[in-house]
Amino acid sequence: xxxxATVGVFLGVALVLACANPVKVGLQGLQSDxxxxxxxxxxxxxxxxxxxxxxxxxxAKPAEEFLSNIEELNGEIEKxxxxxxxxxxxxxxxxxxxxxxxxxxxxxxxxxxxxxxxxELAGKVAVLREADAKLxxxxxxxxxxxKPE
Length: 149
What we know:
Elements: H1 2-19, H2 22-45, H3 47-60, H4 67-81, H5 83-99, H6 105-146
């Protein structure tokens, strides 16, 4: 009796999973991934404020003491910039889901909204790339200030 009930439960779960739209399931997973990446990227965007403050300090007084700060910020920014590859992969996956014959109109709208969010996050990563380039310029400024004239 217990075995029949257990088998019935497993068959019921299998039936529910078989009926689930794979596009919807895939989209939910990608939304979760994007939310996780968004948290990391949003936290990384705050680094641009630190870069701006450091730029003012280095411009006022280009000294070697700032090199360790620059290297530390470079490392933190690089960690966030590397997330762009994951955004690209998710964007590619969304394109595949969008072309699926099982993608209904409401799902296509959700896919489109998530694609827009990915583009927005990619824009924030681009801002971080600019901040990274600014740090490289600051390093050069410090190195030039060290050279005897």
